[in-house]
Design brief:
With 417 residues, this protein is mainly beta. The chain has two helices and 36 strands. The model is unreliable at 1-22 and 171-199 (pLDDT under 50). This is LVIVD repeat-containing protein.
């Protein structure tokens, strides 16, 4: 396979100066080449979970019973016994290259592995076993650089690492590369929740997987995928429902799915579980867009910057969804750099990136008030449960007790070592 080429930032001033001359100029390229292994070899490693280890690059979080599942971005899943939130115990780590999304039903863990999805029996976290591989469920799985570069991997094998090589090239040209200065940032990926059922867990607002009763719904970049999980160990893919481009997140509420894209929020009715039906939508300018709802209002964060879209200032939009066919805007509020969010009663938690974790009183959506700000972390997603808060952040996994809002207390921190 041809190597993937990216241009690096440090020599950009040289490019700009040299570009004015009819003389020799140089450009430095960093060439990233994927290291592949056969799928059979990788899957054999998946069923050999490792002892628990520290969380290095936390992504999606998922709560099931007394267990906390944490995605290590593009590497695998931590299984943590969270019976005592003040002293969580890492039970095992499952190697799953290319993993960014997870969900659990019964004793089965569902995880994407690049364009595929595996079902894993985790009855014994140290002896997990693959019960089914669903191939090419996410065929559009691409790798995205910070300025739009991408490549489509060889889907017959799995990527297990990367090699890099810096190369400087001299040539004669007055032209300046229109994409110089690109940084290929940590191989950021587009991969491809809540439920009243006792046999499924709770996901954060950044999730792309949601389980409602006997069906799992997963969003790819363009569609909603319907998967029968009545027999959890052998999920059965049923259909794709086209939605549009830039689909990002999914949040279930009763018999509805609220789907966030970088152009709109979509609502689908799943009262007929295998046949989700479009109900309504609310368009917005192009931006990154997770959503949560309480059935009366929907709360949508719009993030500016990077490849997120056209807005220059991030914000929170609160929508009236009493009429699901025609949601209407109640009010917008400025934010710094929002990611995930979660609602508990009249409290709304927002992971505002570098601005920290924020807690708002939203009892009056037209006039919300900031109650608390935790500024010493850079949060990504959040799950509130019974007065306890689980936060996935740049610093690791943090848990808080917020049963007393005047004294929000840090319970534990699972952090990098």
């Amino acid at each position: 396979m041809k190597p993937i080429t990216r241009l690096l930032l440090p020599l950009l001033p040289v490019f700009l100066l040299a570009g004015c001359l009819k003389d020799k100029v140089t450009r430095t390229y960093t060439i990233f080449t994927p290291v592949y292994k056969e799928k059979s070899v990788v899957l054999a490693d998946v069923v050999k979970p490792l002892a628990g280890r520290s969380v290095q690059n936390a992504g999606k979080i998922y709560v099931y019973g007394n267990y906390l599942f944490v995605n290590e971005i593009n590497e695998g899943v931590h299984i943590i016994d969270n019976s005592n939130p003040e002293a969580p115990v890492s039970k095992s780590f499952i190697n799953i290259p290319g993993n960014v999304d997870i969900a659990v039903k019964g004793n089965i863990l569902y995880a994407d592995i690049y364009s595929d999805m595996i079902a894993l029996d985790i009855s014994n976290p140290l002896q997990a076993k693959v019960t089914k591989l669903t191939s090419n469920l996410f065929p559009e799985r691409n790798y995205i650089g910070s300025n739009g570069w991408y490549f489509t991997p060889d889907t017959s094998r799995y990527i297990v690492g990367w090699t890099r090589k810096d190369t400087t090239v001299a040539y004669e040209s007055p032209e300046i590369c229109t994409r110089c200065g690109i940084v290929f940032d940590n191989f950021a990926t587009f991969a491809n929740a809540s439920s009243s059922g006792a046999t499924v867990g709770i996901a954060g607002s950044m999730a792309r997987f949601a389980i409602v009763n006997n069906y799992m719904y997963a969003v790819g970049l363009y569609s909603l995928k319907v998967i029968d999980v009545a027999t959890p160990s052998t999920p059965s893919y049923k259909k794709d429902i086209s939605i549009g481009s830039g689909i990002e997140t999914i949040f279930p509420f009763k018999d509805k799915l609220f789907i966030g894209s970088n152009r709109a929020m979509y609502i689908y009715d799943i009262s007929v579980a295998e046949t989700p039906k479009y109900t309504g939508s609310f368009p917005h300018v192009r931006s990154c867009d997770p959503v949560v709802t309480d059935g009366v209002h929907a709360y949508v964060t719009l993030r500016a910057g990077n490849f997120c879209g056209d807005i220059t200032e991030s914000r929170l939009e609160i929508l009236d969804v009493a009429n699901l066919a025609a949601p209407k805007l109640v009010k917008t509020y400025p934010m710094k750099n929002p990611y995930g969010l979660a609602k508990d009663g009249n409290l709304l938690w927002i992971c505002d990136g570098t601005a920290g974790l924020k807690l708002y009183d939203v009892s009056n959506p037209a006039d919300i008030s900031l109650k608390k700000s935790i500024s010493n972390i850079e949060p990504f997603d959040v799950i509130p449960m019974n007065g306890k808060l689980i936060v996935s952040a740049k610093e690791g996994i943090l848990q808080y007790d917020y049963s007393n809002l005047s004294d929000i207390r840090l319970l534990s921190r699972i952090q990098k070592k």
